[in-house]
Specification:
about 350 residues; 7-stranded mixed beta sheet; 11 helices; globular
Length: about 350
Protein backbone atom coordinates (compact mmCIF):
# COMPACT_ATOMS: atom_id res chain seq x y z
CA UNK A 1 0.00 0.00 0.00
CA UNK A 2 1.07 3.60 -0.63
CA UNK A 3 1.19 5.94 2.38
CA UNK A 4 -0.76 9.09 1.52
CA UNK A 5 -1.35 12.42 3.23
CA UNK A 6 -4.57 14.30 2.79
CA UNK A 7 -7.31 16.45 4.29
CA UNK A 8 -10.52 14.69 5.26
CA UNK A 9 -13.88 15.26 6.89
CA UNK A 10 -14.47 12.60 9.51
CA UNK A 11 -18.23 13.25 9.53
CA UNK A 12 -20.76 15.69 8.02
CA UNK A 13 -20.41 17.95 11.06
CA UNK A 14 -16.62 18.14 11.35
CA UNK A 15 -14.23 20.47 9.55
CA UNK A 16 -11.60 19.15 7.17
CA UNK A 17 -8.34 18.26 8.90
CA UNK A 18 -5.10 16.41 8.10
CA UNK A 19 -5.55 12.65 7.71
CA UNK A 20 -3.10 9.93 6.75
CA UNK A 21 -4.42 6.99 4.73
CA UNK A 22 -3.28 4.39 2.20
CA UNK A 23 -3.84 4.00 -1.52
CA UNK A 24 -3.54 0.75 -3.44
CA UNK A 25 -0.25 -0.27 -5.00
CA UNK A 26 0.20 0.51 -8.67
CA UNK A 27 -1.28 -2.35 -10.70
CA UNK A 28 -0.43 -3.37 -14.27
CA UNK A 29 -2.85 -0.84 -15.81
CA UNK A 30 -2.47 1.91 -13.19
CA UNK A 31 -0.86 5.34 -13.24
CA UNK A 32 0.33 7.00 -10.04
CA UNK A 33 0.79 10.74 -10.14
CA UNK A 34 1.75 13.17 -7.42
CA UNK A 35 -0.89 15.86 -7.06
CA UNK A 36 0.33 19.41 -7.62
CA UNK A 37 -3.00 21.23 -7.68
CA UNK A 38 -6.63 20.41 -6.91
CA UNK A 39 -9.62 22.59 -7.69
CA UNK A 40 -12.32 23.30 -5.10
CA UNK A 41 -15.79 22.49 -6.42
CA UNK A 42 -19.10 23.43 -4.78
CA UNK A 43 -19.97 19.74 -4.89
CA UNK A 44 -17.09 19.09 -2.48
CA UNK A 45 -18.99 21.07 0.12
CA UNK A 46 -22.35 19.50 -0.76
CA UNK A 47 -20.90 16.03 -0.26
CA UNK A 48 -18.95 16.54 2.96
CA UNK A 49 -22.14 18.02 4.42
CA UNK A 50 -24.33 15.13 3.21
CA UNK A 51 -26.54 17.60 1.35
CA UNK A 52 -27.17 15.35 -1.66
CA UNK A 53 -27.02 11.85 -0.18
CA UNK A 54 -25.42 9.95 2.67
CA UNK A 55 -21.66 10.06 2.31
CA UNK A 56 -18.82 7.65 3.04
CA UNK A 57 -16.59 8.91 5.84
CA UNK A 58 -13.78 9.72 6.35
CA UNK A 59 -14.11 11.68 3.11
CA UNK A 60 -11.21 13.20 1.17
CA UNK A 61 -12.83 15.56 -1.38
CA UNK A 62 -11.45 16.82 -4.67
CA UNK A 63 -12.11 15.83 -8.30
CA UNK A 64 -10.24 18.51 -10.24
CA UNK A 65 -6.82 16.93 -9.95
CA UNK A 66 -3.60 17.62 -11.87
CA UNK A 67 -0.02 16.56 -11.28
CA UNK A 68 3.00 14.66 -12.56
CA UNK A 69 3.32 10.93 -13.18
CA UNK A 70 5.72 9.17 -10.81
CA UNK A 71 5.01 5.49 -11.57
CA UNK A 72 3.19 3.41 -14.18
CA UNK A 73 2.15 -0.24 -14.34
CA UNK A 74 3.90 -2.59 -16.75
CA UNK A 75 0.84 -2.75 -19.06
CA UNK A 76 0.43 1.04 -19.28
CA UNK A 77 0.96 2.36 -22.82
CA UNK A 78 -0.25 5.98 -22.83
CA UNK A 79 1.72 7.51 -19.96
CA UNK A 80 5.30 7.58 -18.76
CA UNK A 81 7.05 8.91 -15.68
CA UNK A 82 7.31 12.71 -15.85
CA UNK A 83 4.14 13.27 -17.90
CA UNK A 84 1.59 15.83 -16.75
CA UNK A 85 -1.68 14.11 -15.93
CA UNK A 86 -5.13 14.78 -14.58
CA UNK A 87 -8.19 13.02 -13.22
CA UNK A 88 -11.70 14.42 -12.99
CA UNK A 89 -14.91 13.23 -11.41
CA UNK A 90 -14.66 9.49 -12.02
CA UNK A 91 -11.97 6.83 -11.83
CA UNK A 92 -13.69 3.74 -13.28
CA UNK A 93 -16.85 2.32 -14.83
CA UNK A 94 -18.17 -1.07 -15.91
CA UNK A 95 -16.73 -0.67 -19.47
CA UNK A 96 -19.42 -3.06 -20.76
CA UNK A 97 -22.77 -1.24 -20.90
CA UNK A 98 -24.08 0.65 -23.91
CA UNK A 99 -23.12 4.04 -22.51
CA UNK A 100 -19.58 2.99 -21.64
CA UNK A 101 -19.11 1.53 -25.12
CA UNK A 102 -20.31 4.86 -26.54
CA UNK A 103 -17.68 6.81 -24.54
CA UNK A 104 -20.25 8.06 -22.06
CA UNK A 105 -18.84 6.55 -18.88
CA UNK A 106 -20.41 9.39 -16.90
CA UNK A 107 -23.75 7.70 -17.56
CA UNK A 108 -22.56 4.13 -16.92
CA UNK A 109 -25.67 1.99 -16.54
CA UNK A 110 -24.03 -0.01 -13.76
CA UNK A 111 -22.65 3.06 -12.02
CA UNK A 112 -19.36 4.83 -12.60
CA UNK A 113 -16.90 5.06 -9.72
CA UNK A 114 -16.65 8.56 -8.35
CA UNK A 115 -13.19 9.92 -7.60
CA UNK A 116 -14.20 10.35 -3.97
CA UNK A 117 -17.16 9.44 -1.80
CA UNK A 118 -17.54 6.24 -3.80
CA UNK A 119 -16.64 2.57 -3.73
CA UNK A 120 -14.75 0.89 -6.54
CA UNK A 121 -17.03 -2.08 -7.09
CA UNK A 122 -15.02 -3.12 -10.17
CA UNK A 123 -11.69 -3.66 -8.39
CA UNK A 124 -11.04 -3.87 -4.66
CA UNK A 125 -14.39 -2.73 -3.23
CA UNK A 126 -12.62 -0.04 -1.23
CA UNK A 127 -13.74 3.59 -0.72
CA UNK A 128 -12.31 6.17 -3.09
CA UNK A 129 -10.44 9.22 -1.83
CA UNK A 130 -10.02 12.43 -3.82
CA UNK A 131 -7.52 15.09 -4.68
CA UNK A 132 -7.08 16.92 -1.39
CA UNK A 133 -4.05 14.67 -1.01
CA UNK A 134 -0.47 14.28 -2.17
CA UNK A 135 -0.73 11.35 -4.60
CA UNK A 136 -3.31 9.22 -6.39
CA UNK A 137 -3.45 5.89 -8.26
CA UNK A 138 -5.88 5.62 -11.19
CA UNK A 139 -6.43 3.16 -14.01
CA UNK A 140 -4.84 4.69 -17.12
CA UNK A 141 -8.17 4.67 -18.96
CA UNK A 142 -9.38 7.37 -16.56
CA UNK A 143 -6.22 9.49 -16.59
CA UNK A 144 -6.04 12.50 -18.90
CA UNK A 145 -3.14 14.13 -20.69
CA UNK A 146 -2.48 17.76 -19.78
CA UNK A 147 -0.71 20.01 -22.28
CA UNK A 148 2.42 21.83 -21.15
CA UNK A 149 1.02 24.87 -22.99
CA UNK A 150 -1.53 25.40 -20.21
CA UNK A 151 -1.06 26.93 -16.77
CA UNK A 152 -1.31 23.79 -14.66
CA UNK A 153 -3.06 25.29 -11.63
CA UNK A 154 -5.65 27.02 -13.82
CA UNK A 155 -6.21 23.80 -15.78
CA UNK A 156 -7.38 21.83 -12.71
CA UNK A 157 -10.95 23.24 -12.69
CA UNK A 158 -11.40 22.25 -16.33
CA UNK A 159 -11.77 18.66 -15.10
CA UNK A 160 -15.15 19.47 -13.56
CA UNK A 161 -16.26 23.07 -14.17
CA UNK A 162 -14.83 22.94 -17.68
CA UNK A 163 -16.25 19.65 -18.89
CA UNK A 164 -19.59 20.23 -17.13
CA UNK A 165 -20.17 23.22 -19.40
CA UNK A 166 -18.29 22.06 -22.51
CA UNK A 167 -20.22 18.79 -22.78
CA UNK A 168 -23.78 20.19 -23.02
CA UNK A 169 -22.71 23.01 -25.33
CA UNK A 170 -21.23 20.41 -27.67
CA UNK A 171 -24.17 18.01 -27.29
CA UNK A 172 -26.70 20.69 -28.27
CA UNK A 173 -24.31 21.99 -30.95
CA UNK A 174 -24.37 25.53 -29.60
CA UNK A 175 -22.45 27.87 -31.85
CA UNK A 176 -22.61 30.54 -34.53
CA UNK A 177 -26.11 31.90 -35.04
CA UNK A 178 -27.32 30.90 -31.58
CA UNK A 179 -28.20 33.18 -28.70
CA UNK A 180 -26.91 31.61 -25.49
CA UNK A 181 -27.71 32.85 -22.00
CA UNK A 182 -25.46 31.83 -19.12
CA UNK A 183 -27.35 31.90 -15.83
CA UNK A 184 -24.99 32.61 -12.96
CA UNK A 185 -21.38 33.79 -13.17
CA UNK A 186 -19.41 31.53 -10.85
CA UNK A 187 -17.08 28.58 -11.29
CA UNK A 188 -19.30 26.91 -13.89
CA UNK A 189 -20.73 30.07 -15.37
CA UNK A 190 -17.44 31.71 -16.22
CA UNK A 191 -16.37 28.58 -18.12
CA UNK A 192 -19.71 28.48 -19.96
CA UNK A 193 -19.08 32.06 -21.11
CA UNK A 194 -15.58 31.22 -22.36
CA UNK A 195 -16.73 28.14 -24.27
CA UNK A 196 -19.86 29.78 -25.63
CA UNK A 197 -17.82 32.66 -27.04
CA UNK A 198 -15.17 30.26 -28.41
CA UNK A 199 -17.89 28.28 -30.19
CA UNK A 200 -19.21 31.43 -31.88
CA UNK A 201 -22.47 31.96 -29.99
CA UNK A 202 -23.89 35.35 -29.02
CA UNK A 203 -23.49 35.16 -25.23
CA UNK A 204 -25.52 36.95 -22.56
CA UNK A 205 -24.82 36.62 -18.84
CA UNK A 206 -27.87 36.60 -16.57
CA UNK A 207 -26.99 37.58 -13.02
CA UNK A 208 -28.54 39.02 -9.89
CA UNK A 209 -25.27 40.91 -9.26
CA UNK A 210 -24.85 44.18 -11.21
CA UNK A 211 -21.21 44.33 -10.11
CA UNK A 212 -20.39 41.29 -12.26
CA UNK A 213 -21.01 43.15 -15.52
CA UNK A 214 -17.40 44.22 -15.96
CA UNK A 215 -16.13 40.70 -15.30
CA UNK A 216 -18.65 39.22 -17.74
CA UNK A 217 -17.41 41.55 -20.46
CA UNK A 218 -13.77 40.72 -19.69
CA UNK A 219 -14.62 37.02 -20.07
CA UNK A 220 -15.99 37.77 -23.53
CA UNK A 221 -19.75 37.98 -22.94
CA UNK A 222 -21.51 40.18 -25.48
CA UNK A 223 -24.40 41.25 -23.20
CA UNK A 224 -25.25 41.41 -19.50
CA UNK A 225 -28.70 41.36 -17.91
CA UNK A 226 -29.44 42.06 -14.26
CA UNK A 227 -32.28 39.65 -13.53
CA UNK A 228 -33.62 41.71 -10.63
CA UNK A 229 -34.22 44.63 -13.03
CA UNK A 230 -37.69 44.13 -14.55
CA UNK A 231 -36.97 46.41 -17.49
CA UNK A 232 -33.80 44.57 -18.46
CA UNK A 233 -35.48 41.20 -18.01
CA UNK A 234 -38.47 42.20 -20.14
CA UNK A 235 -36.12 43.22 -22.95
CA UNK A 236 -34.83 39.64 -23.35
CA UNK A 237 -38.08 37.66 -22.99
CA UNK A 238 -38.43 35.07 -25.71
CA UNK A 239 -34.98 35.81 -27.12
CA UNK A 240 -32.64 32.89 -26.32
CA UNK A 241 -32.10 29.61 -28.12
CA UNK A 242 -30.40 28.11 -25.08
CA UNK A 243 -29.94 28.86 -21.40
CA UNK A 244 -27.19 27.04 -19.55
CA UNK A 245 -28.18 27.16 -15.89
CA UNK A 246 -25.21 26.95 -13.51
CA UNK A 247 -27.03 28.02 -10.34
CA UNK A 248 -26.89 25.63 -7.36
CA UNK A 249 -29.33 27.61 -5.18
CA UNK A 250 -33.15 27.42 -5.51
CA UNK A 251 -34.44 29.73 -8.24
CA UNK A 252 -37.52 30.45 -10.37
CA UNK A 253 -37.39 28.17 -13.40
CA UNK A 254 -40.60 29.57 -14.89
CA UNK A 255 -39.04 33.02 -15.00
CA UNK A 256 -36.03 31.84 -16.99
CA UNK A 257 -38.03 29.53 -19.25
CA UNK A 258 -39.96 32.62 -20.32
CA UNK A 259 -36.73 34.02 -21.77
CA UNK A 260 -36.46 31.19 -24.31
CA UNK A 261 -37.59 31.33 -27.92
CA UNK A 262 -40.04 28.77 -29.25
CA UNK A 263 -38.27 25.38 -29.17
CA UNK A 264 -35.61 26.79 -26.85
CA UNK A 265 -33.78 24.61 -24.33
CA UNK A 266 -32.97 25.32 -20.70
CA UNK A 267 -29.98 23.14 -19.71
CA UNK A 268 -29.40 22.52 -16.01
CA UNK A 269 -25.84 21.87 -14.86
CA UNK A 270 -26.09 23.42 -11.40
CA UNK A 271 -27.67 21.15 -8.79
CA UNK A 272 -29.80 22.89 -6.13
CA UNK A 273 -30.43 20.95 -2.94
CA UNK A 274 -34.22 21.49 -3.16
CA UNK A 275 -36.59 20.06 -5.82
CA UNK A 276 -37.50 22.50 -8.60
CA UNK A 277 -41.06 23.73 -9.16
CA UNK A 278 -41.87 23.64 -12.88
CA UNK A 279 -45.30 25.01 -13.90
CA UNK A 280 -46.38 22.90 -16.92
CA UNK A 281 -47.40 25.92 -18.98
CA UNK A 282 -43.86 27.31 -18.75
CA UNK A 283 -42.70 24.54 -21.11
CA UNK A 284 -45.93 23.76 -22.99
CA UNK A 285 -46.23 27.36 -24.19
CA UNK A 286 -43.50 27.55 -26.84
CA UNK A 287 -42.64 23.84 -26.96
CA UNK A 288 -39.69 24.48 -24.69
CA UNK A 289 -37.39 21.86 -23.24
CA UNK A 290 -35.95 21.59 -19.76
CA UNK A 291 -32.89 19.35 -19.83
CA UNK A 292 -29.93 18.40 -17.68
CA UNK A 293 -26.35 17.39 -18.26
CA UNK A 294 -23.56 15.96 -16.16
CA UNK A 295 -19.85 15.84 -16.95
CA UNK A 296 -18.50 14.33 -20.17
CA UNK A 297 -16.95 10.96 -20.85
CA UNK A 298 -13.19 10.45 -20.87
CA UNK A 299 -12.86 10.85 -24.64
CA UNK A 300 -14.82 14.11 -24.59
CA UNK A 301 -12.90 15.40 -21.57
CA UNK A 302 -9.62 14.84 -23.40
CA UNK A 303 -11.12 16.57 -26.44
CA UNK A 304 -11.99 19.54 -24.21
CA UNK A 305 -8.46 19.70 -22.75
CA UNK A 306 -6.99 19.63 -26.25
CA UNK A 307 -9.40 22.37 -27.37
CA UNK A 308 -8.37 24.48 -24.39
CA UNK A 309 -4.68 24.00 -25.18
CA UNK A 310 -5.30 25.05 -28.79
CA UNK A 311 -7.35 28.11 -27.84
CA UNK A 312 -5.58 29.02 -24.58
CA UNK A 313 -8.69 28.58 -22.43
CA UNK A 314 -8.15 28.13 -18.69
CA UNK A 315 -10.11 28.87 -15.54
CA UNK A 316 -9.83 32.12 -13.61
CA UNK A 317 -8.52 31.00 -10.23
CA UNK A 318 -7.42 32.03 -6.78
CA UNK A 319 -4.62 29.83 -5.46
CA UNK A 320 -4.91 28.91 -1.76
CA UNK A 321 -3.07 26.97 0.94
CA UNK A 322 -4.89 23.85 2.06
CA UNK A 323 -5.02 25.14 5.65
CA UNK A 324 -7.38 27.86 4.37
CA UNK A 325 -9.91 25.45 2.88
CA UNK A 326 -12.66 26.20 5.39
CA UNK A 327 -12.37 29.93 4.74
CA UNK A 328 -12.48 29.17 1.02
CA UNK A 329 -15.70 27.18 1.48
CA UNK A 330 -17.26 30.07 3.40
CA UNK A 331 -16.33 32.52 0.66
CA UNK A 332 -17.48 30.13 -2.08
CA UNK A 333 -20.97 29.92 -0.55
CA UNK A 334 -21.11 33.73 -0.61
CA UNK A 335 -19.91 33.85 -4.21
CA UNK A 336 -16.74 35.62 -3.10
CA UNK A 337 -14.28 34.05 -5.54
CA UNK A 338 -13.25 34.84 -9.11
CA UNK A 339 -13.96 32.19 -10.12
CA UNK A 340 -12.50 28.98 -8.73
CA UNK A 341 -10.34 28.21 -5.72
CA UNK A 342 -7.42 25.88 -6.41
CA UNK A 343 -5.35 24.28 -3.67
CA UNK A 344 -1.58 24.39 -4.03
CA UNK A 345 -0.82 20.88 -2.78
CA UNK A 346 2.74 21.69 -1.80
CA UNK A 347 1.11 23.38 1.21
CA UNK A 348 -0.21 20.02 2.46
Amino acid sequence: MIATKGYAAQSPTTALAPWDFERREVGPHDVQFDILYCGVCHSDLHQIRDEWFEGIFPMVPGHEIVGKVVKVGDKVTRFKVGDLAGTGCMVDSCRECTNCKNNQEQYCENGNVQTYNGVNQYTDGMPTYGGYSDTIVVNEDFVLHISEKLDLAATAPLLCAGITTYSPLRHWKVGKGHKLAVLGLGGLGHMAVKFGVAFGADVTVLSTSPNKKEDAEKLGAHHFVVTSDETQLKSVKGSFDFIIDTVSAPHDFALYLSLLKTDGTHICVGIPTEPAQIPPFSIVDGRKSLAGSSIGGIKETQEMLDFCAEHNIISDIELIDIKDIQQAYDRMVKGDVKYRFVIDMKTL
